[in-house]
Amino acid sequence: MRRMLQWLAMLVAAATLTTWVATGAHRGWTKTTVAVKTVDEVTGLEAVTYEPRFVMGIELLGGGLAGAALLGGAAQLFRRKTKTTKNQERDNN
């Protein structure tokens, strides 16, 4: 159980970092729309339009890494399996 929680914590941390980097590594709040400047071909005027796009922010990055840290901490609550040797088994009997 301990090893499984450790692997799960690493997987959550890696997935969080990968998603954050893949969506633009934005160091602000999460965005669901992004402003895009467009230039009218006829008049040459600039306009701002908004495209629906998900950009993961720093609060989701922190939340994902905090969740991974909690899983890693929960893994420490379980005991390690100790290997018994033939001498230890003989001493116990």
Keywords:
alpha+beta, 3 helices
Structural overview:
It contains three helices and two strands, in the order αββαα. The chain is an alpha+beta fold and 93 residues long. It has one domain (2-80). β1 and β2 form a beta hairpin. The two termini are 29 Å apart.
Briefly say what this structure is.
By secondary structure, the chain is of the alpha+beta class. Helices cover 49% and strands 20% of the residues.
Annotation field: number of helices: 3
Mean pLDDT: 89
Any idea what the shape is? rod-shaped
Poorly predicted ranges: none
Main beta sheet: strand number and arrangement?
A: 2 strands, antiparallel
Distance between the termini: 29 Å
Instruction: Briefly note the structural class of the backbone.
Output: alpha+beta
Total number of distinct structural domains: 1
Number of strands: 2
Strand order, main sheet: write it out. 1-2
H and E string: HEEHH
The portion of residues forming beta strands comes to 15-25%
- What radius of gyration results from the CA coordinates? 25 Å
Helix content: 40-55%
Draw up the topology in text.
Layout lengths: L1 H21 L8 E9 L6 E10 L2 H18 L10 H7 L1
Antiparallel strand pairs: 1-2
Helix pairs in contact: 1-2
